[in-house]
Amino acid sequence: MSKQLQQDRRSFLTEHLTRITGMSLGSLAAVDLLLRDRVLAQPNEKTPILPAIDPANPNKARGSHFEPKAKQVLMIFCAGACSHLDTFDYKPSLIENHDRPMPGSEKLITFQGGQGTLQKSPWEFRPRGQSGKMISDLVGNLGNLADQMCFVHSLTGKTNTHGPGENFMNTGFTLDGFPSIGAWTSYALGSENENLPAYVAIPDPRGVPQSSGNCWNPGFLPAAFQGTDFNAAAPIRNLAKPEGVSDQTDRKTREFLTRLNQHHLDRYPGDSELAARISSFQLAARMQLSVPEVSDLSSETAQTLAQYGADQKGTPVLETKAAYARNCILARRLIEQGVRFVQLFNGAYQVGGEGTSNWDGHKILKDQYTNHGEIFDQPTAALLKDLKQRGLLENTLVVWCTEFGRMPTFQAGAKGRDHNPAGFTAWLAGAGVKAPYSYGATDEFGYKAVEKIATVYDFHATILHLLGLDHERLSYYHNGIQRRLTDVHGHVIHEIIKQS
Amino acid sequence: MENLPLTPPIVPMQPRQSQIRYLPAIGITLVCLLCKASLLASVAYTQVPIQSSQPAIDFERDIAPIFDEHCTQCHGPSKQTADLRLDLRSAILKGASSGPILDIQHTEKSRLIQVITGQDPDYQMPPEGERLSEDQIDKIRVWIQQGANGPDDSKLLEKPLPWSFRPIEDPWPQASDSSGQFPGLGPIDQWIQAQLDQKQLHLSETAERPTLIRRLFLVALGVPPTPEEVSTFCNDESFDAYEKLVDRTLADPRYGERLARHWFDVIRFAESNGFETNRVRYNAWPFRDFVIQALNQDMPYSEFVKKQIAGDALGEDLATGFLVAGTYDIVKSPDVNLTLMQRQDELADLINTTGTAFLGLTLGCARCHDHKFDPISQKDFYSLQAIYAGVNFGDRNLPSDSTPEKTQRLTQIANEVRSLQKEIEKIEAQAQALAQSKNLRPAVSAKLNEESFEPIIAKSVRLTILASGNSQPCIDEWEVFDTQDNNVALASIGSTAKASGCLEGYAIHKIEHINDGKTGNSNSWISNQSDAGWIQIDFKEPKPITRMRWGRDRSEQYKDRTPTRYTIEALVESDQWKPIASHVGRMTLAAQGSDGLVELLDPDQRSQYQAFKEKSKSLISEEKTLTQGSSVWLGTFSAPPTIHRLYRGDPLMKREVVSPALVASLDGQEFAEDTPEQSRRVALANWIGDPKNPLTPRVIANRLWQFTFGTGIVDTPSDFGANGTLPTHPELLDWLSQRLIEHDWSLKNLHRSMLTSQAFRQSSKPNPQGLSIDADSRLLWRFPPRRLEAEAIRDSMLIASGVIDYRMGGPGFYLQRVEQDNVYRYFPKEKVGPAEYRRMVYLTRIRQEQDPVFGAFDCPSGNQVVPKRPRSNTPLQSLNLFNSPFVMQQAELFAERLNRLANSDVDQQIRMSFHILFARDPDAQEIELSKEMIRDQGLVQYCRAILNASEFLFIF
C-alpha cells in the first residue's frame, strides 16, 4: 500500500470517527464504512477506497489514490457514432477493395440490416505532422495536431444502438441510470475550484445528446456529483437573481435568510446538516459571481474567436459551427479555472432525420459528414491548440470518443455506413499519455479490432488511472454491490501512459 | 470410481502460488486418486513440455468457460455429481468425493486430464455429448502446469445463510427503562431504550405539540399541517389527543400519496420508456392510482405484493403495471444479437426489482454467476426468468364497466371540456383579431397552411424552401385549388410532381407522395438537403388557380422539418415564373410546435392558453380511459419460451434448460416445464406473500421504519443479504414483522405503532452526549432531523402559497413541454400555472429529464431502483430554491395570501407566515428581523427568503 494511500485511509477514518454528526452524505459513508469492514475481511480482494466527503462542501478537493498524471479531464464526445474510417483509422485495403464485397459479409446483419460493398472514405487521407500519421481531410485541422495525439484504434463496444452505446461510453453500463464518468471523478476527487461546479457538461448547440442527461447524471451517486449542464448560449438555470430584483434587495434578502437560519441553528447546536446548508448558500453566492465570469466570452479577442471559428455565419451550418466554437472556448475557460471534469458534446439527439443533427451517417454519409466535419474540426482543433499554448495540457487529459464505430461497407441500398461496435477509434492527448502514439489496430478493412483489443472498460480504467484512481477501488455501495465505473472488468492500458 | 493410493502424497507448493495455500488441509488425499492414472500414464503418456514462454492462462477467461460448456451441468452450482464442482477454482482444487483431481507436479497424472483425454476407455468425461477439443484440453494442461492459478473463490463454496433467511421469531422485550423517565414504555421503545442503555443514553423528552404535529404530517403525509390543524391539536386536552391525531393522519388520503412515492422509488416506476427514444407512456398512470388507493385502503401488504406480480389472475389488472414499470428499449433491429440482449436486460431488470423490492435480495447479481454473497445460484436466477419469460412490455386492453361514479365523472368531464373549449376559442379569437389588426397571417403550422391569392392561370406551380429548422424539409401533401375549388394538383387527374431531390432509402418519403391525395408522415416527401429544396407540380393543361394548402404532417404526429421560409411561384403562359405566395407576412415561429397565432399574445395569456389546452387534453384522455376501459400500460402475457441458463449472462451462450422455480435456499419449489404462464407468476406471488417467507415481512417493516425515522433498522433496505448491513435492532425488527403478519399484513396498523412510539414523539434537539456517542442518532436518543425530499418541498410550497390542487388520480401533469418525434424531446416549462399545482406524485415523471428546480434534490430518475435516497446538499439546490421562477412565483402568491389573511398588518403577516411554514409563533428576535426585512425589501422578498429557511425544508 502506498504511503499516500495509507494517509488517505487514515484521514478517512479520522474524519468519520470524529465527525460530530454524519447525516446526509455522512450517513451514506457510514454504511459504506460498515460494508467496507466486511469486505476488508475477505482476502485477495481489492478493498474500496471511500472518498472522505465533507457534507458541508461535498466537492472540496480530495486526494487521489496514488500520484496522478492528470488533474483535470476534458472529454469531447461525438454523439451519433463518428466513423473511424472517415477520420482517424486509415485502411489502404479499403481503398484497394473499394466497391467489392467484404469477405464474409453476405450473412452479416448489422443494426439496420444487410451490407453493400466495401467503401473507401469520400475523404482523402494524408500524412500529418512529424509522425506522418494518416488522417483524413474531413478532420484536417485536428489531423495537423496528430503529433499530440495518442490513438486507441482497437476499441470495442457492447451494443450497436445509440442510447445504450452512449450510456456505455459515458457511464460504463449500457443500461440507463448509472453514474457518468464525470460523476465518478467528482465523487472521488472533488474540485480545485469550489466557486464553480466540479463537473460541467456542455451540450451541443443543437440540443442534448441521444442519451440526454444519462451522459452526466449522477445515477445512484448523490446529486452533489452530477454534471451541471450549460453551454455558451444557455447559462446555468436559476443562477442569476430573479428578474426585477435589484442587487441590493437580493443581497439583503440573502442576509435576512442567513440570519434566520443562523438563529434557528442556535437552537440545534452541533447539527452539521443545518450548518452545511448555510455554507452551501455561501458557496452558491460565490458561484453566482464566478460562473457568469467564466461564461462571459466578451473578453476573448477577435483573433481567438476567428481561430475557433466562433465568428462565422451566413449559413445554418456555419451558425452551428460558431455556436459549437463558443462552447469550445467555454470549455477552455472552465479548464483554465480548475473545473475537474468538462464534457463537451458535438452532436445532439436525432432531429430532422438520422444523421442530420449528429454523426449517424446511415444513408447519405458524404453530405452529412461534410457538415459535421465543418462544424467539429476547426473549433476542436483550435481548442486543443489553445490548451497547449496556455500550458493547460500539463495537467489536463483530453479525451475524444464516440459511442461506437461504423461499418467499412455501405448499407445495402444506401450511401452510408451502419453501426459497428466491433472496432473503433478514440484518442487521448495531454497530461500523462504518450504522443504521438497509436495503440491497437482493426483488421485490414477496419471492421473488427484485432490487435491489442481494448474494451470501453479498459479505456475508462486508463482514464481513472491517469487521474491517480484505481478503478477497482473507486466504488460506491448501491443495491447489494460495491459499484464501479468499470463493473467487474477493465485493465489499465499501461502501454499508452507516458513514464515520467 | 475406486482408487487406491500407491504413491505417497506429494503436494507441490511453489512459493508464488499463494492462492492455493489452503491446499495442505486437503492435501493428504490429493494424489490418492492417481493410482490408475499413474499406471495409465506409463502407457499413454504424452508430456506437454512446460514452456516458459507460454502465455499465462487466466482461469476466468480461459478455463471456466470450458468447464461451463461441457461439465457444469452435472458438476456445477445446482448439481454436484460425485461431490464435484467445476465452476469454482477452489472447488476444483478441493476435488471430488473420491479425492483430488489435479496433480500440479504431474499434469498428465491429474485425474481430470485422464478423464477428459479419454486415457481411461471405461471412464470418459463428459460421458455423452461433445467432447472437449484438443485446444481446450491443452489450455487445461497449461493451466495445471502453471500452478492452477486463479481467484480465491473459496468463500463462494461455503455460504452461510444470511441472518435474514432465518425464520422470524416472536421476541418480547424485557422492560428496561433504567432512567425511570418513561413509565409504561411500549415494546418498540423498550427495544430502543435497551440499546440506548448500553451506551448510557436515553430517549429524549416528548417534543412540543406544534413540532410533533408538523413532524407527523411531513413524515406521514408529506405536507405541513394548516394553522387550524395545529391549533386544534394543541388545544385538544383529551388524554389520547395524539393517538387520535395519528388515526386521523393515517385515514387522510394524502397518506397513500406520500407512501406511494416511496414505493415508486423502490420499484423505479416512471412514465417514459427511457433510452434514446424515451417516449412518454401516456397511459401508465392507472398503476400509480392503484398504488395510492391500495395504500390508502390499507390493502393487506401480502395482497399488495401478490397483485403486482399476478393481478391479472387476482382481479386487479391495474396492479401489474409493476411488471412493466422499468425502462424499455424500443429501438429494434434485424440484428438478432441486439434483440436477444435487450430482452435479457428487460427480464434481468424485472427479476432484480422483484428481488430487491419485495425480498431485499439482490437477485440480479446472480445473472452471470452464482451470487457472490448470498445463497442464490445462477440457476435460481434463470428459474425466476422462466417465471417471467412470458411478460411483455406494452399496453393491455381492459374491459370497461359502467358505474354510477364513472357516469357522473364522464358528465363532469364533458362539461369541463365544453367550457374549456369556449375559453380556448375566446383566446384564439383575440389572437386572430390581434393578427388582423397587425395584418399578419398565422405562423407556419406543421399541420396545414393556407395560401390564397388572386386567380392566375398557371401551367405549373413551384414551392421553394429556404429554411426548415436545420433539417431536411418535409411536406406530406400539396393541394392546389382552382376557382371551382377542385384540387387540380392530384396525380389522379394527370398532374405530375417533381422535386430538387429526395432523401434516399425510404419508401414512405417519395416525391410522388406530394400529390397522391394521402397525408401523414408515411406519405410524404423529404428533401435531400437541409433547409433547402423545391417541389413542383405540372398540370396537364393550364389551370386557373386561386388557393393552395400544404403541410408537414396533417395527422399532427410530427412537427419537425416544417418549412418556415419559402416562396411559391406559378409558371404562366409566357413561360415566366411569377411569385404568388411566400412566408413573408406570416408571423415568425418563435418555437416550433406552438400554436401559431397565440404567439402574438402576452406571456400570461399564452400560458393560460397552454394550460387550458393541456387540461382539456388530459380530460379527454381520462374520458377515453373511462369509456373504453381502454388500453393501459400494464404489459401483456404470452406463452413463455424455453429458458436456458446463460453462461455469464450472455444470451448467445445458452447452456442447459431451466425449469421455472423459486429460490431453492428459501424453500422454493420447482415447477413442471409446461406450467402455464399465469400460474408461474401466481406461484411466485404466493411464495413471496407467504407469511412463512422470512424476508417479505422484515423488508417491508424495515421500509416503513426508514420512512418514519429516516434510516432503517437495516440501513441497506433492499439488500438483506450478506453484503448488506446488519440490523441495529434485530429483535425489534422481528417483533415488528411478527405484528405485521398477526394483524393481517396491515401497514397502517404497523405504522401506527411506530408513529405513537416515544421514539417518534421525542424531541429532535441535540445534546452533546448523544452527539458524541451516536452522531447519526441511529440508536434514536433523539428524533433524527432530516431534509425533506424534493416532492415534499414542492408540495409544501404550494400549500404555503395556498394554490395546491389536491385533485387525486387521473392523468398526470407535466413539468416539461414534450416534442414528439421518433425521439421524444423535453424542454422544461418556463412558467407553470394551475395545471402544475398538483402534488408532485402526479407529475408524469420522464426518465433522464430532471425538473430544473427539484431534480437537484436527489430526485430519482426512475432508471434504477432507489430504496433510499441520498440527501445531498449542494450550491445548485440553494440557487434553485432562491432564484427559480417557480419559487419566485410561489413567494408572490404567498405574499398575496398573507395580505389577504392579515390585510396590511405586518405583525400579523409575520405571525401567519410562521404558523403556515413552521407551525409555531415567531420569537421576539424573529419578529424584529422580519419587520425590518418587510419594511425595507417588501413582503414578496420576505416570502422568498422564508420559503428558503432551513426550518421549512427540514423535518424536526
Overview of the structural elements:
The complex is a heterodimer of chains A (500) and B (956). Chain A is an alpha/beta fold. Chain A has two domains: 72-236 and 300-469, 3-Layer(aba) Sandwich (Alkaline Phosphatase, subunit A); 247-292. In chain A, 34% of the residues lie in helices and 15% in strands. Chain A contains twelve helices and 19 strands. Chain A has helices at 3-18, 25-40, 92-96, 140-143, 162-171, 181-189, 247-266, 272-295, 302-308, 316-336, 365-389, 456-466, and strands at 72-78, 115-118, 125-128, 133-136, 149-156, 199-202, 228-229, 341-346, 396-402, 405-406, 409-411, 419-420, 424-430, 437-439, 441-442, 449-451, 454-455, 476-478, 481-483. In chain A, the strands form six sheets. In chain A, strands 1, 5, 6, 7, 8, 9, 13, 14 and 17 form a nine-stranded mixed sheet that branches. The longest helix of chain A is centred in the last third of the chain and has 25 residues, at 365-389. Chain A is globular, with a radius of gyration of 24 Å. The two termini of chain A are 21 Å apart. Chain B is flat and about 105 Å long. Among the domains of chain B are: 18-156, no CATH class; 336-397 and 635-688, no CATH class; 444-586, no CATH class; 885-955, no CATH class. In chain B, helix 3 crosses helix 6 (134-145) and helix 13 runs antiparallel to helix 18. Chain B is 38% helix and 10% strand. Chain B has 956 residues and is an alpha+beta fold. In chain B, strands 3, 5, 6, 8, 9 and 10 form a six-stranded antiparallel sheet that branches. In chain B, strands 1-12 form a two-stranded antiparallel sheet. In chain B, strands 2-11 form a two-stranded antiparallel sheet. Classes of the chains: A alpha/beta (500), B alpha+beta (956). Chains A and B meet through helix 2, helix 5, helix 7, helix 8 and helix 10 of A and helix 14, helix 23, strand 15, helix 25 and helix 28 of B.
